[in-house]
Amino acid sequence: MRISWASHVALALYSNLGLVLGDSLLAIRGLDPALAAHYKPVNGKFTCLDGSKEIDFARVNDDYCDCADGSDEPGTSACENGTFYCANRGHKPGKLRAWQVNDGVCDYDICCDGSDEWDSGTTCPDKCGEIGKQHRQLEAEKEQKQQAGAKRLQELVEQAKQLREAKTAELAEEQKKLEQLQEQLAEAEARKNDLEQQQRDYEANSNAGKLQALSDQHLPDIIRYRKLLSNELHLLRAHRDTLILLLKAVRSDHNPEFNDEAVLSAVSEYGEFVDAYPYMEAAALEYADEDMAARQERQLQMDRDNEEQDDVSLSACASAVEIALNERQTLNDDISMLYALMDGLRSGYNKNYHDLAVKGAVGGLDEFDKTRERDLAEINQQHEEAD
Question: Does the predicted TM-score (pTM) go above 0.85?
Answer without folding.
Answer: no
